[in-house]
Amino acid sequence: WKPKSYPPGPKWLPIIGNYRDFKRRLDKLGYHHLVWDELAKIYGPVVCLKMGRSLVVTVTGPEAVREVLTRDEFDGRPDGFFFRVRTFGKRLGIVFSDGQFWQKQRKFSLQHLKDFGFGKREMELRIVEESKELIDDLKKKSVGSLYMHKAFDVSVLNVLWTMMAGERFSLDDVRLIKLLQIIHDAFRLFDMSGGLLNQMPLLRFIAPGVCGYTKVMKILTEMWLFLEETIAEHRKTVGATHPRDLIDAFLQKMKVCSSEDSFTDEQLLSLCLDLFMAGSETTSNTLGFAMLYMLKYPNVQKKVQDEIDDVVGRNRWPTMQDKINMPYTEAVLMEIQRIANVPPLGIAHRATCTTKLFEYSVPKGAIVLTSLYSIHMDNAFWKDPFEFRPERFLTDKGTVFSPDWYFLPFGHGKRRCLGESLAKTNYFIFFTAVLHNFILRIDTDVDELNMNGFDGITISPKPFKVILLPRTD
Ligand code: HEM
Predict the structure, then answer these.
(1) What is the ipTM of this complex?
(2) How far away, in angstroms, is 390 Cα from ligand 1 center?
């Protein structure tokens, strides 16, 4: 049974709703976003499923995705056990908070990250320094072949962490590598609707292992401990003025705010957790896929290298100023984001009031997923969406073309990615730095390269090995 006015979808069973049907399709297709795609083919661009206690509405295709991302009543984030367990049973952080609390915290974070270079030349210089360090490290390690799917993890995080906590990690930092692996596992364990733990939270008492509770608590405990140590260190040394980083700025703000305000110890930890998680996995997975596509398409790799050599030459490092003169490279970077779909369903939204979506009624509290995958792979618009063809992003004149509603790797609207400028600069500098310095070769057959990643909140590349041949001047 379900109200007639709700969006279409398969019939609900008592208690579990559509869980069994969804699981059956997931076992067949292997990826959550493909299940939603299959359901959209049957029921249309707005599909509604009941997953345990959660009502999940998923929108597919540019028209429906645009409708959700441009309307304030869909700017909420889901509530529920899974979304609160990270943040002490409360709605904290930035990613899964909403309303005035979120507005205030998002504004504060952006404003103060900017004070420490975010989106500015300083940030780019830091990324260049990190990329130089990474290239040196790769040169040392690149005797024979090496795993490349996670090569960027620490370097990418270092840029963000310097602005947040004023420190960077050595590329071999064992604790950080372990922590990043933990985050990686966490992203594989759940899906954007919160998974079983959100749908049936009581399962944590009955079957904590099966519903992922045991693992999630292990992951969170390690993350909390790590972040708490960093924050405690800041607490000891923070001054009254001249903050050194975002944590200092937050601690100073706490001192001048009343205890009812949203600037609390728990919020500081939650904010750090959110930025740490949102900022690391997405960018390094995108760069991992970028390496994979360069291996699979050596002719594209060569064209990028030729463009870098033409514009940058062999005697200096690529910079963001070069990007405007490198349309082919930019088109390649865009095509990788389009086809790899690292966040295939973006981040879950929530209807903050009962509202209409086209002719359907969406009740207050429904989880709303936007299939970014569906717009990136839209058959009618892209014609051959499964082909890797960077030229699709170039006009006849050779300039870069960005089709607004068919290319949204960072989302759109008020909930758009907070880290976009950092992510884009990281992506461009690390990618061009590697191709400037190395020719990437595989040591297996090209056909053996697996372009399909692991499923999860983000899609991540499966392990692959690369032979890095130094490019001579
Ligand atoms: C290639 C890398 C990245 C991609 C593809 C990406 C993509 C996205 C997407 C699709 C969203 C959700 C938009 C929505 O809700 O509709 C998002 C949100 C977010 N991203 Fe990113 N992101 C990337 C890197 C980063 C970085 C480096 C940071 C670190 C500062 C970051 C921080 C965030 C935060 C905090 C949110 C939540 C914003 C909010 O709810 O107000 N992201 N990102």
Answers:
(1) 0.99
(2) 24
Q: How far apart are CA 357 and CA 349, in angstroms?
A: 14
Q: pTM of the entire structure?
A: 0.95
CA atoms 188, 22, 52, 375: torsion sign: positive
Q: Which of 405, 417, 425, 431 to mutate to test the pocket of ligand 1 (most atoms within 8 A of CB)?
A: 417
Cβ neighbours, 10 Å, residue 193: 26
In angstroms, what CA-CA distances link 179 with 123, 155, 166, 221, 276?
24, 14, 18, 11, 10
**Is 417 known to sit in a ligand binding site?**
yes
Distance CA 180, CA 166 (A): 19
pLDDT digits (tens, 9 = 90+) for 433-458: 999 999 999 877 666 788 999 999 99
Which residues lie closer than 8 Å to 23 by C-beta, 6 or more apart? none
Pocket test for ligand 1, best of 282, 368, 371, 425 (most atoms within 8 A of CB): 282
Which ligand 1 atom minimizes the distance to the CA of 372? 10
Burial of residue 383 (number of CB atoms within 10 Å: 0-12, 13-18, 19+): exposed
- For the chain, the distance separating the N- and C-terminal CA atoms, rounded to the nearest angstrom, is 69
Structure tokens at 374: 């569906």
The Cα-based distances of 29 to 187, 373, 457, 462 in angstroms read 19, 15, 16, 17
